[in-house]
Design brief:
3 domains
Length: about 400
């Protein structure tokens, strides 16, 4: 027997309240649920969701993001839940729904829920509560109105570049060092031109940027290049991009939690293992622009496994983690004060120490081994392109 497939819409208002509807007929008459219905033959989940929500509530779905799935083996049924943005005036289909209201997740009356498994419903709504809390913290950290969650940081980068291509940006600029591996790969994959601008070990010279950017370009910036120096002139970078009509993508994977993470046409990041927000899964994109947001949501085809409880825990511990890493950074710089440290006076996490012979290199490595610090050898594009030891404080 083919499984029955149901799609449901999570509709939130501007106060983060959830739309709950009361059933008007059938076994669940008088009980509450969220709007949705059965996927018909030859329909995609998204098509069924749009049709059902229009029929039941008169709302038009602008975009939808997969949230989670619930299976009911005894009923031979799968239920897929999507967070949706919808517009229009709510007019209920009265033979199916008798009323609606918006409620806080904490105020849901589980005794009135229509479901064969209340435990699963509680799990879903608990995840949704953590989703809302995490999204709102990221709004504060980025200063942006819209947050999109992704399965990883690389997905966020690729989506941002696809957005650039849709905006007819043909040229992608990146730093000549201190970036990330896919900065070089993804533009080529999308058949975009790639140029590297000369930097001071990852730190951007706005005059150099000005000489390279124009209305056909986008600048994919790592605002904490190599994790060893925060990009402090971020406002000047944005000003230069604005003056030259260049689209600014800010990779804030390393800078999240600092002022450098609040500038850009889009801001993105990773929550990977060795990141300041180290969930070991997931990423995000943030923007203020409604059209960009719609494009990114609709283009994001990869399902995100719910991880919002873990994300919320890491977000609330971000300041403490950054302070701990900063203290270790300062200690290492103090211990190695006689060595040539790249951007020694700048706020950093990793510490990059240059060497000009094997003896100096071995002394740095011996220090790392003694203190159980992981390290990587340069030249490496993702750190610097000189002979150096990068002490990977971010992995602690």
């Amino acid at each position: 027997m083919q499984k029955k497939t149901v799609v449901n819409a999570i509709i939130l208002n501007e106060n983060d309240e959830l739309m709950i509807v009361t059933r008007a007929s059938g076994r669940g008459k008088g009980l509450i649920t969220i709007p949705g219905g059965k996927v018909e033959e030859n329909e995609t989940h998204e098509q069924a969701l749009k049709r059902e929500i229009k029929e039941e509530t008169n709302l038009d779905i602008i975009n939808s993001q997969y949230f989670d799935k619930v299976s009911y083996p005894d009923l031979n049924m799968n239920v897929y839940l999507f967070i949706v943005n919808a517009e229009g005036n709510i007019i209920l289909k009265k033979d199916e729904l008798e009323s609606y209201k918006f409620v806080k997740i904490s105020e849901i009356d589980y005794n009135r829920i229509y479901s064969p498994d209340i435990k699963e419903v509680k799990r879903i709504f608990s995840d949704l509560d953590f989703y809302i809390k995490s999204r709102n913290i990221l709004k504060e950290l980025t200063g942006k109105k819209h947050i999109i969650f992704t399965d990883r940081g690389n997905t966020s980068i690729l989506l941002a570049l696809k957005l650039c291509k849709s905006l007819n940006k043909k040229d992608i600029l990146i730093q000549d060092q201190g970036g990330w591996l896919t900065y070089r790969d993804f533009p080529k994959k999308l058949k975009l031109n790639l140029s590297e601008i000369k930097t001071d070990y990852g730190i951007v010279d706005t005059e150099e940027l000005k000489n390279n950017c124009n209305e056909d370009s986008a600048f994919l910036l790592n605002s904490f290049p190599g994790y060893f120096a925060e990009e402090e002139n971020i406002s000047e970078i944005q000003k230069t991009c604005n003056q030259n009509k260049t689209f600014l993508i800010n990779d804030a994977s390393g800078s999240i939690g600092t002022g450098s993470a609040k500038t850009g046409d889009v801001i993105l990041g990773s929550f990977g293992r060795a990141k300041p927000i180290n969930v070991e899964y997931g990423g995000f994109i943030a923007t203020d622009n409604e059209n960009y947001y719609d494009f990114l949501v609709n283009e994001n085809k990869k399902q995100v496994i719910p991880f919002y409880d873990s994300l919320y825990e890491k977000l609330t511990g971000l300041n403490a983690r950054r302070e701990r890493l900063y203290l270790i950074n300062k200690k290492i710089k103090s211990d190695l004060t006689d060595f040539e440290i790249v951007h020694k006076s700048k706020q950093g996490i990793n510490v990059i120490v240059k060497f000009n012979n094997e003896q100096v290199k071995n002394r740095i490595i011996k220090y790392c081994n003694k203190n159980n610090y992981e390290y990587t050898l340069c030249p490496r594009y993702i750190r610097i392109l000189d002979d150096a030891v990068s002490i990977e404080v971010k992995r602690l």
